[in-house]
UniProtKB/TrEMBL annotation:
A Pfam family hit: GidB
Protein family according to the UniProt entry: Belongs to the methyltransferase superfamily. RNA methyltransferase RsmG family.
E.C. code: 2.1.1.170
UniProt main location, coarse: cytoplasm
Gene: rsmG
HAMAP family: 16SrRNA_methyltr_G
Extent of the signal sequence: none
Database matches in SUPFAM superfamilies: S-adenosyl-L-methionine-dependent methyltransferases (SSF53335)
Protein name as annotated: Ribosomal RNA small subunit methyltransferase G
Amino acid sequence: MAERDRLRHRLDEGLAALGQDLPAALRERLIDYVELLARWNAAYNLTAVRDPGEMVHRHLLDSLAIAPHVSGATLADLGSGAGLPGIPLALVAPERQVTLVDSNGKKARFLREAVRTLKLANVRVIEGRVQDVPGQFDCITARAFATLADMLNWAGGLLAEGGSWLAMKGRLQEEEIAALPAGFQIARILPLQVPGSEGERHLIVVRRA
């Protein structure tokens, strides 16, 4: 089986397990993203995951698992790294304006290249600290780049009134949840079943109190 066919097969199986039916053209663009990431990763070490097939499970499907919980017209992905979950979420919802934020220069360069190569007209990249991002957003995603308290203390002001902060975590830490800063409350904690991935995954949904 050719490499792209292998990736396509893994993605199709995973989407079926998630109960998501995406158009064929969109699935091809998701594979394009994984192939671009794998090429850049060889030189720039953007992610510890080396195998593109594993990237489908641990990056693409992990990101797409939260897609049903994303809402609003604007999304900021903080500490986006290689564009996760921001780029997959931008691909599946081209009507939403997505801002990818990362302070690491080589990761920001990759993000800009991904936006150009994948023709993501709805995506902009900010290279800088989350504390310095202007504006407010209907939805904010963060994939375990800091504790909940740190993230909200640094960037809680970015969350628009009525918006949702989606924190992607592995094993739940009770002390981390208990340390939520004033002005915020946990709306829901959802276990995530990510096809092909081992270990616990959770989505913590935070809103303004």
